[in-house]
Specification:
The complex is a heterodimer of chains A (997) and B (463). Chain A has 997 residues and is α/β, with parallel strands linked by helices. Chain A has four domains: 190 residues, no CATH class; 191 residues, 3-Layer(aba) Sandwich (Dimethylsulfoxide Reductase, domain 2), CATH 3.40.228.10; 104 residues, Beta Barrel (Barwin-like endoglucanases); 243 residues, Alpha-Beta Plaits, CATH 3.30.70. In chain A, 28% of the residues lie in helices and 20% in strands. Chain A is built from 30 helices and 41 strands. In chain A, the strands form 13 sheets. A seven-stranded mixed beta sheet of chain A has the order 5-4-18-17-16-6-7, sandwiched between helices. In chain A, α3 crosses α20 and α6 runs parallel beside α18. Chain A is globular. In chain A, 59% of the residues are buried. Chain B has 463 residues and is mainly alpha-helical. Chain B has one domain: Up-down Bundle (Formate dehydrogenase/DMSO reductase fold). Classes of the chains: A alpha/beta (997), B mainly alpha (463). The interface between A and B is large, with 57 and 51 residues.
Chain lengths: 997, 463
Amino acid sequence: MWQSVEAKERQKYENIQDDKKQEFSASLQEMIDNSIGYQLDRKKFLGIMGAAVAMAGMKCSRDPVEKIVPYLVRPPEAQPGIPAYYATAQMSSRGVLPVLVKTREGKPIKIDGHDDHPVHQGAMTVNGFAVIWDLYDPDRLKTSKVGKDGKFTDISTADAVKKVTEIINSSQTVRVLSRPEYSPAGKSVINGFLRSKPGSRQITYDFRGTIQSLVDAQKKSYGRAIVPQYRYDKADLILSIECDFLGTWISPEVFTKQHSNRRNPDGKMNRLIVAESMMSLTGANSDDRLPIHAGSHVALALGLANILLPMSQYAGNGNILNAVSTYTPEKTSEITGLSIDKIKAIANELNQARGSSLVLGGGASSRSEVSGELEVVVNLLNSILGNEGSTVLTDVPMAEMDDIADNEQLSSLIKELNSGNVDLLILDRVNPVYELPEDSGFKEALKKVKNVVSLSSYMDESTVKSNVVVALSHFMESWNDTYYMGIYTVAQPVIRKIFDTISFGDAWLQLQGNADNYYQYIKNVSAPGYLAGNFGSIWEKTIAAGYYVHRKTSGYSAARGFNAASLFGVGKTVKDSSGFTLSFYESIQIGDGQGANNAFRQELPDPVTKIVWENYAAVSNDDAKANGWRMGDILSLKNGNKEMQIPLYVQPGIPKGSIAIAIGYGHEEMGAIAKGVGVNTNTLAKFSNTGTKYSGIAVSVQKVKGGYELATTQRHHEMEGRALVRYAELGKYKQDKKAGNHEHKLEGKGLYTPHNYALEVKSDVYKWGMSIDLTKCTGCSACVMSCYSENNIAVTGKKEVWRGREMAWLRIDRYYEGEINNPSTHFAPLPCQQCENAPCENVCPVGATLHSSEGLNDMVYNRCVGTRYCQDNCPYKVRRFNWFENTYDKIQDPMQMSLNPDVTVRGRGVMEKCTFCVQRINEQRQMARNEGRAVHEEDLKTACQQGCPANAITFGDLGNKETIVAQKAADSRSYRMLEDINVKPRVNYLTRIINKG
Amino acid sequence: MSVIENVYGVGKPSREIDNDILRPVESFPTKLWYIAFGMASVGVVMYWAIAGYSFKKGLGLFAINSPVGWGFYIINFVFWIGIGHAGTLISAILYLFRQRWRTTINRAAEAMTIFAVMTALTFPVLHLGRPWMVFFFFPYPNERGPVWPSFRSPLLWDVFAISTYFTVSLIFWYMGLVPDLATMRDRLVNNEAKTKFGNMLLKLRKNAVNILSIGWVGSAKTWIHYEKMVLILAAISTPLVFSVHSIVSMDFATAIIPGWHATIFPPYFVAGAIYSGFAMVLTIMIISREVFQLKQYVTLKHLENMALVILLTGMMVSFAYITEFVMAAYGGNEMEQYVFINRLKGPYAWAFWTMFTCNVVSPHFMWFKKLRTNIYVLFVISIVVNIGMWFERFVIIVTSLHRDYLPSSWDLYTPTFYDYAMLVGSFGWFFFWYLLFVRALPQIAVAELKADEAGDKVKGYGH
């Protein structure tokens, strides 16, 4: 059904009208032969072919057609109703995420993981799915603007670029403020600009500090600013200090994938220990969680180093000894709040796992006054433990980030701005007014600059303070390239620009007077450095495939030598504060706040707290009790003369005296969604020359008048002794394969006779079922986002969620268990269980929900009158009712383009629920029928399954004993939720196994 | 044949009885009536305005959510259906049991039934997500396949049960009215109004009564046929008294939600319905006999009898409550047990204890003759019982739904302004009709009363 488009094009030019077979096998075979050393399966084939379609449209050899004309004569490659997939890559300050974009009739409608990508292997994040709505965000800049003092008039982007060029020509001193760049072409295009404009300088900063502190520490400890490859799949024991690598740290999707490979109780299962001052996703997934006081993380790392040092090759190093010697177990215990025994036990465990352990540290909640402080000690620990070269690989680093400015450079920039000597400041995709701490004085300094130009997609806090705003395109509208984790990617656009915007690469090229467009630039300047061999064919194949393996070695040998001097100054900032200490963390849904104007991100429940549309001060239960605070009180946090007021949330697992708040909220500008949601933490963040302090900020806390309603999707946090999430310790599981899963099944009798599928037989009968491995599931919620995107699920807003009316078809239940100060956390994704004895079916008076011949519980929207009886009678409460008109009344142009045409958009007054992605089932069944075969298990994936970076979800035919899902259903760990009420769900869960060591 | 003294006898000539009972129908309304009717009309306007607004905007106006998919609407529905129970019970079952005291209260009780069912019926329609699709409920040959409703759903059983009940009640009520309508017709013949407009209205009324009395002549033969028909209708109605609320209870009993899934529900609901129905009749009769000077017709003895029915059904309801708790404890199902513990001390414990006080404690005052013959005590208890019965439905629906199987989906239910307004408005809607009724038709079955009186004179009471 697929035709090669190059072939089509060639046919057109060479006027070959016949012999189609030969023509399209020729190029296909060529592709297969040259495919980059990986087996070509169907998925990849689709990827390549889809990309090829895009390429045909994007080829530079074609005349640039600027007008859109209707298809009077349909091009043969454009099949209405058949999706085309394009490989591209999404870039954020967090890193690079290779994706496949699914388009229908020219419109991108869904983003999927890139399954064939050698590193990512299809891993996705919440953010990866959510960018589809950024593309269609009505608040995105629709054209460029010029203005002053917040008053803007629209001008065309071409004019805006001209205007900026004029300003550049008339300026002496030009400064460019930009964000970490993973694109070689992007880097060199800005460098080109700097070369073309004498007197210009670029400062790149990392708002969240993750990369900045990591590379700062790498520079100090080992000499070069690289991001090493941390190999979670090679580590038997992982110790993470304040590092949320499963949620927000660098590339959580890759780390989740690697980590989940080792969450296999039948194989060699790894063990994860997390020490943290807030409750992160990683902490929630840990086998052992150590709550430590906010800001005491460096002390813990030093304390461990102190114990481990004598047993290592660095034992004789006096400098190291000096740095760690004060951190005796006693002192460490005092600062961190952990018991001495616990600290010793962890050190002992690490020592036992020499060479196969992995120590991690970093992330927003560990940023201290000295940038990279924790990371330096973590480097030391990894060196001491001999992990360098085994679990910390540096031969091909994840990225080399030598251009990230430290705080000293930033503050000298601010000084420079303040002096009034800067004629022009160009803000390249950054929002420093929002992102830099208030006490950095950037906001005031900005006023002294003669001209500010902003390259931005939104009218954000910094953009409104600029003179010229150049509207930038979304990444799905622009060419780009990336080099990340040894993979070179040419990221292609998948849709023509929706608004009058320009891609950032083109903008920079035009500003330096380069006549090339960015596509040509990438092809001629950037790509040749990475693509070897016959450039012409490799280039096209790279675009199509979405990746090219280019292992640029760093020149490092297996294990690097640790530079003891890097420990200078480390640990000085650790104070034993007796009051409240505050730390900021990055939330999974909003991250650094760049995507805050996206209702889907805002409405995604925080994987741990389940709160939406808000950030809040998470405090410990003890503190709340001691001070008489209750959920919904408003706290005033004061540090010096700085104050912020924020609603309180009592979070189990937070140590006494610590408060944690998410960054990325509290936008004052940007758009209708982001504005006024939450509180900006930068009021209290501390900026200094050595680093930005996000962690361990001493605050005085007071309850202020007023109350606040936090909207959450889960209000009860305990299982009430019901065996909903079943779990067992690894040791017990090794002895008894049914450990934790001994609840006996009750075989009950139903009121009605069971479904007789034999009566409805067609040639291909499937029994669809799902299996969810709770040992692998991290609760990261990527599946939920994927489901939202696939099934046109509406967002409802904070008030409605507060009322209990969120529309998520798939939710992730999170339960705490054990001690409230350090509970164990369990996650259970809950799609519709597609019960065999579905209680919802009998009670519907109009027969709007029915059992299909394949065992699905189908929902007939047209027939539904909305009695909500089915919802009442659903023991899992997975049904969602449209209380208001959720889509038609609320959708704004061009948001409708993100809707999946294969899924009905539900109107007001009807019930909806998970369908097991019945549209995908139907598509695959039909394809299989056309080809006279059964549906292949690997072809058919539900959106949640596809979105899961941990491979926790399996879907397929339970009727066929060969399928993976059937085997999992028969596993000794398999159980069904609420099986004793005899509803016979088609979803089974695999007992969670916890490795207690 | 024993001769029993008619303790309910009035001892007045027929003419005077006619005058007494038809006075509100034949005279101009009082100020009090106008005030009451005005208030009820405000309620009606509010009721339908909100209904219209929710029709346009969606059910999101109300507090219902997931997991509490049913809220005030269904509570009100069950409440009003329950109120509607006393009428048929009095007119059919008490008729068959030859309970003589029913004579003076059955008309009002039946009217109350009709209006209560009319009120109740609005709720299931308005609570639909797409009320304009309500015709999907009815099994009729159609062009959509044909697609039939699902006969497994208790909601569909409701449709049949309630529509049957309403039809039969209406016929029964109307048939009982025919001799009285004829009386009205005969008394109107010579009436003249002072103004032209008045005459026009009078003509209209004369015609209406003329038509509605379907040529009643009051001959002995007519009476023989009439008595037979009433007997047959009573026999038809009797099972309906039990079926309607049994089926309504199955909305809950057949569901799998802990707190709903209970076999005791049908008898429990029927007892509760009679309980609340009698309480409502009591409330209305206490007001009517005062306002319309009917004390010699609706005597303390009548009220006392009703109080005893309330005591009996109140104890039946209490027994059902206890049974539920015992079954939960004995059944050993942790989900079921949790629901009942949650009722006692969960977030809606106040609702449970309100219900408990009103329904279980308050009827026991009726053991004392002094109390049950005290108008004020009776009036207060009759209202308290109905508050309790409304809360009973609240407890059953909301507390069971808000915490069911998975603690992750547990939530609270916080009624909005619209919820309360619809509850208040439904009373407006009910009293709107009831107030029209007392102005248009005799509140006491005049013909039956006269027959009883006549029987006394001839040979005392006894059939």
